[in-house]
Amino acid sequence: MSNRLPVDRVVDEAGQATWRPSPGGLVTALQPVMRAEDGVWVGWAGVAGEEVEPFEADGISILPVALSEQELQEYYEGFSNDTLWPLYHDVIAQPSYHREWWDSYVRVNRRFADAAAGAAAPGAVVWVHDYQLQLVPAMLREVRPDLVIGFFNHIPFPPYGIYSQLPWRRQIIDGLLGADVIGFQRVADAGNFSRAVRRLKGYETRGPIIEVPIDTDDPESGSHRHVTTNRHGGLVRTVLARAFPISIDAEAYQELARRPAIQERAREIREELGNPETIMLGVDRLDYTKGIGHRLKAFGELLRDGRLDVEKVTLVQVASPSRERVETYRQLRDEIELTVGRINGDYATLGHTAVAYLHHGYPKEEMVALYLAADVMLVTALRDGMNLVAKEYVATRVDEDGVLVLSEFAGASDELRQALLINPHDIEGLKDAMLQAIAMPKRDRVRRMRALRKKVLTNDVARWSASFLEALTRSAHGDHPLQDAPVNRR
Ligand SMILES: O=P(O)(O)OC[C@H]1O[C@H](O[C@H]2O[C@H](CO)[C@@H](O)[C@H](O)[C@H]2O)[C@H](O)[C@@H](O)[C@@H]1O
Ligand SMILES: O=c1ccn([C@@H]2O[C@H](COP(=O)(O)OP(=O)(O)O)[C@@H](O)[C@H]2O)c(=O)[nH]1
Fold first, then answer.
1. How big is the chain by its Cα radius of gyration, in Å?
2. Which InterPro entries does this UniProt record tie to the protein (predicted)?
3. From ligand 1's centre to the CA of 154, what distance in Å?
4. Residues of the chain with CATH 3.40.50.2000
5. Does ligand 1 come within 6 angstroms of the Cβ of 384?
6. Which among 87, 277, 315, 440 has the fewest CB atoms less than 10 Å away?
7. What is the pTM of this model?
8. Does residue 246 line the site of ligand 1, with CB under 6 A?
9. Which atom of ligand 1 is nearest to the CA of 412?
10. Which CATH number is 250-458 given?
């Protein structure tokens, strides 16, 4: 279950409906998993006010959940993306708190839970994804205690000092604790969650295990899995909360990178840009968490100070459209486009663009060609759950060349230690890292890229889903594995 299905329904001006792939890393990561399983994907079809019948897409059974226009505004654009999203990303933007948005979030979560409850076979495994659906685990457990329920949070879980702002902080914790296994991107996220549970609920935790007291007056209390007695002699249900860092289908990216047509397209991209000595690339949803403004500032200053030459270096910035009706996102687009216009106005020449700015979403093949064309990949997120783009760049570089500049605030930095790690708030540090990346000798580039590729090729998306589902299946047999998934325990 995820808010977004792998395909969005798009209705054109003539009223004709078509399906197009959904944006974002969650769908990229889950598609190969779902293709391999004989399951049902429950999610929203991407258009408001329409009931869509269950259907098949690319070998996946789809069960659409309908949202009205008002729910789209209050549950998705409002509570999910204007309350939870900024709150969980370190309040980079100010979260808005509205009681009607919360009511809508509860209503829509209930609808998702009901849909899954109706579709799941007895004892089935249900895997719920992301911050839009945090109440679903408890709602589902209430009506279907036979199910094995997993939850994975794709975005960060904030430190308690930030999380505690949320007026509905206890309800969200209760919602999540309905799951048997709760997965996070980083060890730090899992730690933040356990702390919030201790502070808000007073429940005890032992490493990754959370002890949820059982209400013995509840007639359903006998149906719980992994019930045990805690050190005070009380009956508790145990929940596993741990890091499972997500990844990509690395083999598929390698395969695309080896295709002659895609390699030719990469050469064409370089030519279209006037064959600069260095191409730097940024690929992001147009989101304030991605640090696009910081990246442009650093690049603009390097041109201003004559440390970079527009005839030698071009920055390609793909900023794919995202959440365009949310005011903060509209403002961000204006700011970014103003900055790009200024940099190009000040430093571009007739023959050489400084920033090639593309406000589009591209298919995978074009993404791979862009990755192959880029000498330096810039991931400067201010906060990011994982950032699959960083991993895709590494998987694509079958030539073992290219330099990844990576923010330490992206989950990917826990694993990709051989990237040039930066703090995007430190503009001078970012500028130095860009120059270091451009000037890095081939031997060093290859050494770093080899080490990065080993990580991404070993810890791919199949391994991620297998380790989560294994933890979930073991939990169905009353056994919570205590060790962490493969990740640096930093
Ligand atoms: O569905 P949208 O509102 O259009 O947004 C797209 C997705 O963005 C987020 O992606 C996150 O998941 C990635 C995979 O785990 C991760 O690499 C990235 O850091 C996250 O930001 C969001 O979490 C998804 O729910 C959205 O569908
Ligand atoms: O034009 C684009 C821009 C992005 N992406 C994909 O969108 C995902 C972005 O995931 P990431 O984890 O980096 O960030 P998110 O957008 O989920 O926050 C990656 O798989 C990208 O390849 C894409 O297919 N076309």
1. 23
2. Glyco_trans_20, Trehalose_OtsA
3. 6
4. 7-246+462-476, 250-458
5. yes
6. 277
7. 0.95
8. yes
9. 17
10. 3.40.50.2000
